[in-house]
Amino acid sequence: MALSEATAQALRVDIGPIEGVASAVRDLTPGPIALFLVHLVGTLDKPLLLLGTALILLGICAYAASWVRRFPLLPDVVFFVLGAIGLVAVLRLPSPGLGAGLAIVVGLITWIVTLRALTAPLLRETHPDEPRSDAATRREFLIRSAWLVGVVAVLTIGGRAAGSARRQVEQARRLLRLPVRSGRVPAGAALDVEGLSPWRTPNRDFYVIHTALAPPSVKPEEWSLRIHGMVDQEVTIDYEGLISRELTEDWLTLCCVSNRVGGDLIGNAWWSGVLVRDLLAEAGVQPGADAVKQTSRDGWTCGTPLVALTDERNAMLAVAMNGEPLPVEHGFPVRMVVPGLYGYVSATKWLEDLEVTRFDAFDSFWTERGWSERGPIKTQSRVEVPRNGAKVRAGKVTLAGTAWAQHTGIAKVEYQLDGLPWREAELGRVPHLDTWVQWTAEEEVGPGEHRVTVRATDRSGYTQTAVRTDVVPDGATGWHSHPFDAE
Fold first, then answer.
1. Phi and psi (nearest 5°) for 163?
2. What span, in angstroms and rounded, lies between the C-alpha atoms of 151 and 145?
3. C-beta separation of 76 from 66 below 8 A
4. β-strand 423-424 against 410-417: which pairing, if any?
5. Distance between CA atoms of 373 and 305, rounded to whole angstroms?
6. How many Cβ atoms from other residues are within 10 Å of residue 34's Cβ?
7. Is the pLDDT of residue 127 over 60?
8. Cα(202)–Cα(208) distance, rounded to whole angstroms?
9. What is the CA angle 317-326-182, rounded to 5?
10. Residue 288: phi, psi to the nearest 5?
C-alpha cells in the first residue's frame, strides 16, 4: 500500500489507489445513506472513509495471508481480485492517466513478493541435518518484518517528498498577483452585536463542501475551460486568457442545500471573476438549450439552469475570494459562483468544462441520488444571539441573527419571544439582493427560560413557512427557534 501510494504521488496522479477505491464507495453509496453519514460525522466524513478503506483492505489481506500454508495460491487470488477492484476504481475517474494503473500494478506485485518474503521462514521445511528452533524461525521472521516497517517508512516519506504537486500549486497561488480588490464592507451592513457572525465570512471560516477526497492540484498554466454543446462555436480559454478579460467583483452569499434550519453551511464573501454570460454569448447559445452541464477536474458534475447564467445576475467564473486567489479547497484556480442557486446545481470547484445542453439529456452527480433538478435557494433565517441554551442576565437582552433569500432579497425579519405576537426586527443595510442581511432587536426578559423564534419575508412577499422539511430533495424549510436562560 505504501509503495502504491508513493508511486502515485511520484507520478503526480491526482487520486491515489486508496482514494480511488474510497471515491468509488462514495459514488455507489445511495444518496439518503450518504446524507445520513455526512450529517452523523460532519467534516470527518472523508478522513473516516479513507481510513476505513485502508483498514478494510489491510484486514482482507491479513486474513487471506493467514491461509498461505494450507492454500498457497489463495492469497494471490485475493490480491489479484483486490488489484482488479482498485484498477477499475481508479480508471473510472476522469483522466486517470497511466500512472494510476501503474501504481495499482506496483502495489499488487509488492503484495505478492512481500508475502512470500515475510512468510518464507515460517513455511520453510526443516532439513534433518539442519535443525532450526522455533525461536530462530520467529527471530528471522521478526527481522524481516522490521526491515519491512523500515522500508514502509522510507517509502512514505519519499512519496510525500515526491508528491510535491499540491505544494507547487500552493506556491503558484501565493505568487499569483491578480488585478482584484479585497472589497469594503458596506456601511451599516455589519451590525455591532457580540456573538453575531461577521457579515464578511473570512476565507478560513467559509464552509467547505465537495465530494473530492483529495482536492485536485491544478496549476494556473495547466488550467483551461472548454465551452461546447449546443453552441455556434466551441470556445476554449486558458487562465491567462480568462484573467486578461474584464473582471466583475461583487458581494455574494453562497449556501449549501444540506444546510439545515439554523445551520452554518452558508457564507458571504467578495468574489472576483469573469461573467459567464459574456463567455456563453461568445460561444453563441443555440435555441432549445435550457441547461449547462458543469464538470469539475475530479469528474463531479452539476446541471445549472441556462437562464441563471445569462440573466442580469453576477454569475461568474470566480478566480478570487475576498481579494485573494481562490484557496485550493475552494476551487483554485477557477470555480463557478451563481447567486440564488444552491451549490449542488451551480458552485462547481476546479471547473474545466461547460456543456450547453438540455436537462432531459443528462443526469448530474446529485440528481442521480434523488435531489431535485433545479435548486433555487429558499428564504431562510436563523437566531445567533443568544446562542442555543445560553445563559444571559435578566433585563434588556439583545437578539440577533441573519436572514437570506439570494437574488430575491429580504424585505423584513420578525421574531417571536415566548410565543408572544411577532415583532419586526431592525435590519442591516445590504448592497443588493444577493447577500444575506443581519437583523437585531432588544427585549426585556425576566428570570427563567425563554424561547426565541425567527422568520423572514422576502421581497416577493413570501413569508417562511413553519413546516419543517429535511434538506432532501431541494433544501430545508421551517422556522429557527431555540431556548436561552435569563438569570
1. -80, 70
2. 10
3. no
4. antiparallel
5. 9
6. 18
7. no
8. 12
9. 90
10. 100, -20
Tell me which of 265 and 149 has the higher pLDDT.
Answer: 265
Q: Judging by beta carbons within 10 Å of its beta carbon (0-12, 13-18, 19+), is residue 38 exposed, middle or buried?
A: middle
* Grid cell at residue 217: 492540484
Q: What is this structure's pTM?
A: 0.75
pLDDT-derived band at 188, boundaries 50, 70, 90 = very high
433: amino acid identity, one letter: L
Distance CA 114, CA 120 (A): 10
Supply φ then ψ for residue 265, to 5 degrees: -85, 60
- Apex 132 CA angle, 127 and 135, nearest 5: 155
Q: How far apart are CA 171 and CA 180, in angstroms?
A: 19
Residue carrying C-alpha cell 432549445: 288
Instruction: Decide: 423 and 394 in contact? Cβ < 8 Å.
Output: no
**DSSP element (H, E) containing 254:** strand 248-255
Q: What is the DSSP code (8-state) at residue 255?
A: E
Q: How far is CA 420 from CA 423, 443, 450, 457, in A?
A: 9, 12, 11, 19
Report the distance separating Cα 357 and Cα 368, nearest Å. Answer: 17
- Taking only the tens place, the pLDDT of each residue in 48-75 is 888 888 899 889 989 998 888 888 889 9
Which residues 6+ apart lie within 8 Å of 407 measured at CB? 313, 339, 340, 377, 433, 434
| pLDDT tens string 218-236 | 999 999 999 999 999 999 9
SS3 481: strand
Residue-wise pLDDT tens digits, 65-109: 888 888 888 998 998 999 899 888 888 877 666 677 888 888 888
Highest mean pLDDT: which of 51-60, 158-167, 416-425? 416-425
CA–CA separation, 221 and 69 (whole Å): 54
C-alpha cell at 246: 474584464
CB atoms within 10 A of CB 207: 18
Residue 138: how many CB atoms within 10 A of its CB?
A: 12
Q: What is the 3-state secondary structure (H, E, C) of 296-352?
A: ECCCCEEEEEHHHHHCCCCCEEEEEECCEECCHHHCCCCEEECCCECHHHCCCCCEE
